[in-house]
Amino acid sequence: NLQILRQTTSPTVKGSCAFKMNLFTGTSNLLFSSVEEPCDSQVTKAVKEMAVLSCDYNIPTPQLTNFRIYWQKNNEVVLTIISGKVSVWPKYKNRTLVDISNNLSVVILALRLSDKGTYTCIVQKTDNGVYRREHLALVKLSIRADFHDPIITDLGSPSAGIKKILCSTSGGFPEPHLSWLENGEELNGMNLTVSQDPETELYAISSELHFNLTRNHTFVCLIKYGDQEVSQTFPW
Question: How far apart are CA 126 and CA 44, in angstroms?
Answer without folding.
Answer: 34
